[in-house]
């Protein structure tokens, strides 16, 4: 039997609380099954929390406090953790940055906006200002910082293998002025090259294709089941039910087949960046 992998409490907020939960559970002499009994959560969910792969939801925090007699410790700390993790992110998205850091592989499908891990500050800012024009400037900048901080995952020696598929419209119909769009596309090109990642572009001429309804992120982990993240305008959902995950992954594989090859896709992005740069110079 392989040795148990304990979470590093210093790695992230979920890892800290996962390690504390495991310590207190074992101190109380309870198994995972005994601790989760009576809650609305499953055994695998609790196990993922102990390994630091997921944050603890409030309902489970209250259940754990009652079972372990921890006098509201996990409920109080759960509120603190939520505040820290949600800074600059909507509540429904709070788990995703930590999951991205822990993932072995990340596969993004971006039909409407450039994926968050590839965005420049200018792109994030314009995106927020366009989608939520009522936001105060300091709130917009908080969201920009949070999005850029997610890109710290690229600096890790244990960064996930990354694959992205973008619709060509995201390149041909710019959200930004020419100079900033050139910077955005150059950023994507350099990041993909420098991290040995893979990017494909789905041509404008491809009308029918898998996953036509919106964004999907596929994540796999070294010692946890894969999951899917889907997101709408003001909501998002983690999908971890195995049959649904399997269908999403099969659809993503078919989407790869419909997209341009990686080298041709990067060449298209490089050419588009050059075109926007020339346009910016002509406007100067």
TrEMBL record:
Alphabetized InterPro entries for the sequence: Cro/C1-type_HTH, DUF5753, Lambda_DNA-bd_dom_sf
Coiled coil: none
PROSITE patterns cross-referenced by the UniProt entry: HTH_CROC1
Listed CDD domains: HTH_XRE
Residue ranges of domain HTH cro/C1-type in the record: 21-54
Name recorded for this polypeptide: Helix-turn-helix transcriptional regulator
Organismal lineage: Bacteria, Bacillati, Actinomycetota, Actinomycetes, Kitasatosporales
């Amino acid at each position: 039997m392989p040795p148990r992998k304990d979470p590093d409490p210093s790695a992230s907020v979920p890892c800290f609380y996962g390690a504390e939960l495991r310590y207190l559970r074992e101190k109380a002499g309870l198994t995972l099954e005994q601790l989760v009994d009576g809650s609305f959560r499953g055994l695998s969910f609790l196990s993922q929390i102990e390994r630091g792969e997921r944050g603890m939801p409030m309902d489970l925090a209250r259940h754990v406090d009652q079972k372990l007699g921890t006098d509201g410790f996990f409920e109080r700390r759960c509120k603190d953790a939520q505040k820290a993790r949600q800074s600059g992110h909507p509540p429904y998205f709070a788990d995703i940055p930590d999951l991205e850091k822990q993932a072995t592989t990340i596969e993004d499908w971006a039909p409407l906006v450039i994926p968050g891990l590839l965005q420049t500050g200018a792109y994030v800012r314009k995106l927020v200002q366009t989608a939520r024009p009522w936001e105060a400037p300091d709130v917009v900048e908080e969201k920009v910082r949070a999005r850029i901080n997610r890109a710290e995952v690229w600096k890790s020696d244990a960064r996930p293998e990354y694959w992205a598929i973008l619709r060509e419209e995201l390149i041909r119909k710019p959200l930004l002025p020419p100079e900033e769009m050139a910077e955005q596309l150059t950023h994507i090109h350099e990041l993909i090259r420098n991290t040995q990642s893979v990017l494909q572009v789905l041509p404008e001429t491809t009308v029918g294709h898998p996953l036509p309804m919106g964004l999907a992120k596929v994540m796999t982990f070294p010692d946890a089941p894969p999951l899917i993240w889907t997101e709408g305008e003001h909501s998002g959902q983690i999908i971890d039910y195995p049959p649904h995950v399997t269908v999403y992954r099969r659809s993503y594989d078919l989407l790869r087949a419909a997209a341009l090859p990686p080298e041709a896709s990067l060449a298209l992005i490089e050419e588009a960046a050059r075109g926007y740069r020339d346009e910016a110079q002509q406007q100067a």
